[in-house]
Input
Amino acid sequence: MTFQNPGALLYFLPLGGVVILLYLLRMRRRDVRVPATFLWPERTDEVRANALFQKLRFSWLLILQLLALSLAVVAFAKPQTKQRGLAGEVTVLVIDTSASMSATDVKPSRFANAKKQAEEAIRSAGASDRIALIEAGPTPRVLFPLSSDPSKQLRALDGLKPTDAEADVGDALRLAAALVGSIDGARIVLLSDGVFDKVTNFSRGKAALVYRSIGDSDENLAISALGTAETPTGRQLYCAIKNESLKPIDGTLSLYADGKVIDSVKVPAVTPRGQWGRTISAPASAKVFEAKLDAPDILKSDNYAVSLTSAGASQHVLIVGKGDIFLERALALEPRVVLDRSANLPADTSPYDIVVFDGVEEQPVASRGVLTLGTAGPATPVTTDGSVKSPQFVSAENQALMKGVDLKGVFIDHAEKVKPRANGVVQALGDNGPLIVTSSSPTKRQVYLSFEPLQSDFPLQIAFPIFVSNVLDFLAGEADSSLLSVKTGVPFSQPTTAPATLKTPAGDTLSIKPVANTLIVRETRQIGKYELTVGGKTKSVYSTLRSDTESDLKPQKDLSLGGGEVRASTSPSRFADFWRPLCMLCLFVLGGEWWLFARRS
Amino acid sequence: MTTMVLEPREFRLLDGLRLNPRKSFSGRVRGERLTKKKGISIEFADYRDYAEGDDLRHLDWNVLARLDTPIMKTYRDEEDLAVHLLVDGSASMEFGEPTKLEGAKRIAAALAYLGLNGGDAVYPRVLGRREPPQAALRGRASYPRLASWLGGIPSDGQSGLAKTLREFVASSVRAGIVVLLSDGLDPDVIGAIKSVGGRGHELLFLQILSDIELDPDLEGDLRLLDAEAGSPVEITVNSYALKEYRRRLQEHNGAIVDAVRRIGGRHALVRPDQSLDSLLKTVLKKGGWVA
Output
């Protein structure tokens, strides 16, 4: 046992001396003459004194007061004992649930080992120790706030599951620092294999950071690439496999097209840190290609990959213009969109599926879809006839493009006054002409909006992201929007007002309700095929890992966190204070002393 | 001017009453008390056989005529009764309102009047101080002398009750009624009471206690000074101390009552302000102390 403030023990001498001195003071008693004194008991329970001096006599009050004083002095000296264990007085346990934690080099898995260590820390914590649990998953979340309730903490820990996704450990650590960074003596314990991206912009504050490295192997073979390419000889499917370890590993690769095996091949032992690839002809009509690798490695999450060839499954969008944050945000909500932005139209637009002219005059492009906002061009399905001030919405066609989009009440400062060309179809009509016009042909689809969104309050309406989603469906072709490929753990959203159900690869069905007319799906944390049903329409969602970071399973012993190096520790020590129980005991003794005083006085 | 201690009305209450001892005592002069000694009086006592020289006036002629046997009638003698009137004059008797000594004097006057009125020999004596024994008082005419004596009793006695009571017992006085008027506040009083019974006296103990003893109004940190020779007591008077005091007083009084009964005496606890009417009614007449 040691004392943080041993000098406080010296206070006992003067303070105890004062207490004893008070008992040396004699009571000045009032003389009273009585007929006989032999009937009176000798009860000199002095609780006050006002004269000097008398011989020190035994008194329970004196004993209790000296005991309370000694307890208070010892408590003030802050006694502490050194103990080993993860938990301190205030501890945040950050548990990595990324895909790499499912590696089985530590039996049964790195994740199970981390949970076990967290459980031991909770069980071994003192009664006054406060512990919080944070999941370092795709989206960090507080499983349990700071508290001293082991049973609830263990229940929360029991509900924690591993994911097949990348983890944002940096955000999780920042969350932990926000919880305890301002508390002296607090401790952030990271239970992880160290397989995550370098963490920057992290400050632990006053808290200590303890890193427990889990894992001892890196034997892993992963599918590093899967895709199709249109060649003059037809569609080709290629697949690449990477050995992330320092030991040759072989396996068996199976390729599927729309669920049917199209190839199965023995993968020769891939050299350490080397790659192996295979390219085959793929059926032109197939939309879903899957690759499955069977290998004697320690991680199965990266042995599965999906490639979709459907036009609507992935859309590369280019915004040409000054920039519209509302438009970019609405497009970013779409998981199928890969967004680029440019002030000027690039010479080659063939890599882009859709080009958006935002306040810029439309020009001919090679892309199959064009969205024109406010400034018509020669290829636009309208002809311009000046401009109009404050046009009012009149009516809309009952088409898929306008489903869920209500322009009534939308304020438009000014718009182009247009007339539709022959191929133009008016979707929405204002009091001075068309507001939305579309055109479609086998090779190209166009949507024209007669005003720039920033010249109206349309971006502030709930209808705006729904309109953008409908535009993407229209430009891609509605038939192609039933397939979607997402990265595990990355939430995606879909504008809708109807509730949805999600069927997981394991067969479970989850209900998801939209918030503010947007359905946010966060549950795709495992690899495999999900089925998302919204308003009677079912969409197949393929979730894959495909992460070089997660596939490189070598456990990290040293981490770079926020500019500082953190070394993995075995079992950190802690100093356990026990001045609080001493204070409680002191109060109890003072209570007894008060009771005795009240009883005698 | 000598005070009479009692009111004229109180004298009228006492007229016609006499002390009523349980025992018989032999007297020194002929009085109005029947004794065990056979003597000449009109009070028949017993029969006995005739002996030569007996006074033929006491021969029972009727028995002689019927049985032809000379039988003598005997009669109880009538002598005076010794009434030792012991008034506690120790310092502890000055407490109370009126003081216990004042109450004792009034009761002593009443009982002495009964004795004098009944032809008894009253021997007044003060306990708690050394003074020569008083001569016996006889007859109603002696009452003023007794009243004068009572009026002269100071309350500054420094000797203990038990000690002076033992001195009285040891003084070879005539056996008789011992009327003890005291507060009994002496730790050794029990032994002294037993010694009174050992000398053949009949003890009538009227213990006089005031509210100061029965329900003391004390509180706080005090140094209690004994009115007599007791040592001072430093005390924090609280409910616990008062409870303990009452328990001890009750125990002490209980021991006195027990000791008095063991020697065939009588005991009563009275207050100094108790009226003579009440005393007669609740103690003296009810308990058969007077008849």
Observations:
- Chain A touches chain B at residues 27, 29-48, 600-601 (CB under 8 Å).
- The longest helix of chain A spans residues 579-600.
- The mean pLDDT of chain A is 86.
- The two ends of chain A are 40 Å apart (CA to CA).
